[in-house]
Amino acid sequence: MNVEPLVRVLEDSAALAEAAAEEVVGVLGAAVAARGKVSLVLAGGSTPRELYRRLAGSPWRERVDWGAVELYWGDERCVAADDPASNYRMASETLLAGLEAVGVEPAAVHRIAGELGAEEAVRDYDRTVREMAGDPPRFDLVLLGMGEDGHTASLFPATVDPEGSGRLAIATVAPVAPHERVSLTLGALNGAETVVFLVAGADKAEAVARALGQVSGDPADAPPAARVRPRGRLLWLLDREAARLLRATIDVAPPMAAEAPR
Ligand code: 6PG
Description:
The chain is an alpha/beta fold. The chain has helices spanning about 15-35, 50-55, 85-100, 120-135, 185-190, 205-210; strands at about 5-10, 40, 70-75, 75, 110, 140-145, 170-175, 180-185, 195-200, 235-240. Helix 1 packs across helix 2 (about 50-55) and helix 2 runs parallel beside helix 3. The chain is globular and about 45 Å long. The two termini are about 30 Å apart. It binds 6-phosphogluconic acid (6PG).
């Protein structure tokens, strides 16, 4: 079943990061309580940086049983892990830096080895996801951002076959450098239980309206972000600027009640 998006508009980027932290803690807590372990797919780009900083510190860090979390990435640039453009580096400087203290197992951190080049990195990550998250994967929580063109992860409007035709990871070419990317496919993303988009800034407003179907036009022209329709819950967390072209927003239910870590 592909659910309809829920939209929650926050005052500014700080409130967005706070609301996102509440969602992450709520979803991960419920999943760990239900299954004893949980898979979290991290978003790249710059928007999630403030969220990751929050999760790595008190009180948020203590509200998740991080030892039960398997970490993945939605996409990666084909650069070294310590390159300033690396999505892994951004997460390791913020989220992982704080989580060492609470026992995230290094073996549970499944970064995309972009330094291998796209084709080898795709083979490596596709195999890791199948082995660790299942085939098809059922990620408990996927965090995503969105670009001004409506791309998400590294699925761009010009990406051929973003569904992936059974593949879980594909090589794509970004219109901006670094051009070589690796991305989870829509097929992998849409198997998720929960997807949360984090989008902030006036420059995203047009893409947000298009992605949420509030701009008339040919459905075939819908941006890649519009095609993310997970099995369970789809939540868009927006700041006021990114939401300014939306006709109406639906206030979502309160965040999921976070189970205390076991
Ligand atoms: C990437 C991201 C990409 C990002 C959007 C938004 O590797 O760049 O995966 O999909 O989420 O481009 O980026 P900002 O958060 O920097 O605006």
